[in-house]
Design brief:
With 155 residues, the chain is mainly β. The chain contains two helices and ten strands, in the order βββαβαββββββ. A six-stranded mixed β-sheet has the order 8-7-6-5-10-9, with no helix packed on it. It has a four-stranded antiparallel β-sheet with strand order 3-2-1-4, with no helix packed on it. It starts with 15 loop residues before the first strand and ends in a 17-residue tail after the last strand.
Length: 155
C-alpha cells in the first residue's frame, strides 16, 4: 500500500487498522516496508483474492493510535468539510480534499457552484483554522483566483 502518514515507522506497533469507508477493523499480522511502499498482512486476508477486495481502499489508524499533536496542529479529517472564508468574510466554499505536492500541500475547496479552488497550505495563505467551528480563514493572495466568479478556472 502507499503510505501517506508522516510516521510510517509506527505501523508495526499498531494492532488494528481500519479499512475503507466503513472503517472495517482488521487485525495486523505483519508489516513490511518494500520498494517505496508497505506490505500489510491482515488476519483473515490469507490470499491474493481476499487482498484484491481491499485494493484502492484507504487504511486508517484509530485516533488513540495517532501521533499526538502539538499546540495549533490538527488532523486533516478534522477540517475536511470546513467552510473556507477569506479574511474579509467572503465564503469560498468547503474544504473537500488535500493534495500532496513537492513544495507544500494544497487544499481543494469546492465552491457553492461545484468549481474547484486550489489553495496552497502556506502561512501566508492559511490564517486561522477553527477546528471546533470547522472554519478555515485564508488570505486570498493576488492570483489565487483567476476570477472569483469562476473559482480559479483558467480563463
Amino acid at each position: 500500500m502507499k503510505v501517506i502518514t508522516d510516521y510510517p515507522e509506527r505501523l508495526p506497533e499498531i494492532d488494528t487498522l481500519y479499512v475503507g469507508p466503513t472503517f472495517e477493523p482488521y487485525q495486523v499480522k505483519g508489516v513490511r516496508f518494500h520498494a517505496g511502499g508497505t506490505l500489510m498482512l491482515f488476519e483473515g486476508v490469507e490470499d491474493r483474492n481476499a487482498a484484491e477486495v481491499l485494493r484502492g481502499l484507504m487504511v486508517y489508524v484509530h485516533i488513540d493510535d495517532a501521533v499526538p499533536l502539538e499546540e495549533g496542529e490538527y488532523y486533516l479529517f478534522q477540517i475536511v468539510g470546513a467552510q473556507v472564508v477569506t479574511e474579509d468574510g467572503q465564503v469560498l466554499g468547503t474544504l473537500t480534499d488535500c493534495l500532496e505536492t513537492g513544495a507544500n500541500d494544497v487544499y481543494v475547496i469546492t465552491s457553492p457552484d461545484d468549481k474547484e479552488i486550489l489553495i496552497p497550505v502556506i502561512p501566508e495563505v492559511i490564517k486561522h483554522v477553527d477546528v471546533e467551528k470547522k472554519v478555515l480563514t485564508i488570505n486570498l493572495l493576488d492570483g489565487l483566483l483567476q476570477n472569483p466568479n469562476h473559482s480559479g478556472e483558467n480563463q
